[in-house]
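User: Please look over both lines:
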Amino acid sequence: MKSRWIKIFWSVLMIAAGVIFMLRELGVIDFNLLSNLTWAIIFGVLSIFFFLTYFLMGMRNWGWLFPAMILGALATIVALDGTVLGETLSGALILLAIAIPFLVVFAIEPKKNWWALIPAWVMGALGGVVLFENQLSGSVVGTFVLYSIALPFLVIYLLDNTKRWALIPFGALAIIGLIPLLEGTISGDMLGMAVMFLFAIPFFVVYFWSKTHWWALIPAGVFISIGLTVLLLNIPLANNWSEGIKRLATAVMMGGIGATFGVLWLKRGSYATDWAKYPALGCFAIAVLAFILGQNSNLLWPIFLIACGVGIIVWGVFNKKPGAANEDMKK
């Protein structure tokens, strides 16, 4: 019965709104003649109607909260138009109004509605940015937004420890969130090194969290190797040392990647990583050749490809099975 009367009420209200807009199109009513106070009252009354509908329909019908909150925010903005407070709040009220229904959804059933935290925090963070944009620097705003988006993923994991996947976006966003802050304190070249080290951290965390995630060592090792290379290339040295540093940097990068695969090969007793010896040996060979060749490093890849081809041929000739050798003799 209650639901029926609510439907009738909104049907009548929609008809009335349609008549009003029709009169406006016919030139009978001019909305421009209405004052800000009048519009604020109209939006406020509509907001109250939606709030009443929400409470009458039941707390779980949270969809009614969106128009209720948005219209309430509009009423406040219009009423404060032209004031210092109105200019300060601006669009932040609308964004915060959109966030609140999601928080209500989460509060009703946290275990089930964990997803609502994500849009709630995103809208809340954007609202905070709009609210304090004049007081915050660009780097702080960037970090604030990224950490605000990362936080709900951490909360999701803390609410249910089985949702370990939530730690991945949390860790990635938390690491990336440091980059805007580092831009103001670290020079461009060294920033690249810092970013590489930061990217390696979440992969190390994944590996040490559970040793079955051995694959995480590969990107972690690659990022660390690249970071060390950038560090070496930016060490202030005399000009006559520059060529030696370039050789060393290339050798360090390839050697670091080779060491990463070498570690995986050492764990072949626990995991199926016996294959890792091949990229490890290849990377070590490239590291040695790069250090020896120096300025002639353009020859590195052709030499490496030739060596691989020769190695495959030699392997094929000397690693024939007895049965295969007998077949060749018969032919």
Observations:
- The radius of gyration is 32 Å.
